[in-house]
Design brief:
The protein is an alpha+beta fold. The chain has two domains: 79 residues, no CATH class; 50 residues. It contains two helices and six strands. A six-stranded antiparallel beta barrel has the order 1-2-3-4-5-6. Helix 1 runs antiparallel to helix 2. The chain starts with 7 loop residues before the first strand and ends in a 22-residue tail after the last strand.
Length: 149
């Protein structure tokens, strides 16, 4: 189901070590190029503003200024690569079995993570792809790699 602003609800799966996965509903917002650029520019300017402010901190400015300058570029690139943003995640925690809203806690290794407010476990999230992003595959001739003579 998609609304007028491009947001849509999709199925998701929550995983935690030692428990069976559970199902959830994720509301995601696709980000167009303008949205991604705005988010990237915002984090870049925030980090660079922190670098300017840290100029006036004695001794610490030797590592704070270059740190904020580099951090701004890195975070801007990471934000710019996000194609969609998780707005809401509602489901059943696989560990404590409570149905609740989950708060996104970030990404690690390209994987989305949330924290359960009930049992304080860190849960891995897999969100199903939208139908509009998948492209139909056209069957073609099968060839073996490296067997050509």
């Amino acid at each position: 189901m998609h609304s007028m602003n491009g947001r849509g609800a999709r199925g998701a799966t929550l995983h935690v070590f030692g428990a069976a996965p559970s199902h959830a509903t994720a509301e995601v917002e696709p980000l167009n190029l303008g949205g991604r650029l705005a988010r990237s520019l915002g984090i870049l300017l925030a980090c660079w503003a922190a670098a300017i402010v840290s100029i006036f901190i004695p001794v610490a400015h030797f590592f704070l200024v270059p740190g904020f300058l580099v951090l701004g570029v890195v975070l801007a690139v990471v934000r710019g690569r996000d194609r969609e943003r998780l707005l809401r995640l509602h489901g059943l925690c696989p560990r404590c079995r409570r149905e609740q809203e989950f708060v996104q806690s970030g990404r690690q290794g390209g994987e989305l993570w949330v924290n359960c407010p009930g049992c304080f476990n860190r849960l891995s999230v897999t969100i199903e792809r939208s139908a509009s992003r998948t492209t139909p595959t056209v069957p073609g001739p099968l060839t073996s790699i490296g067997t050509r003579r």
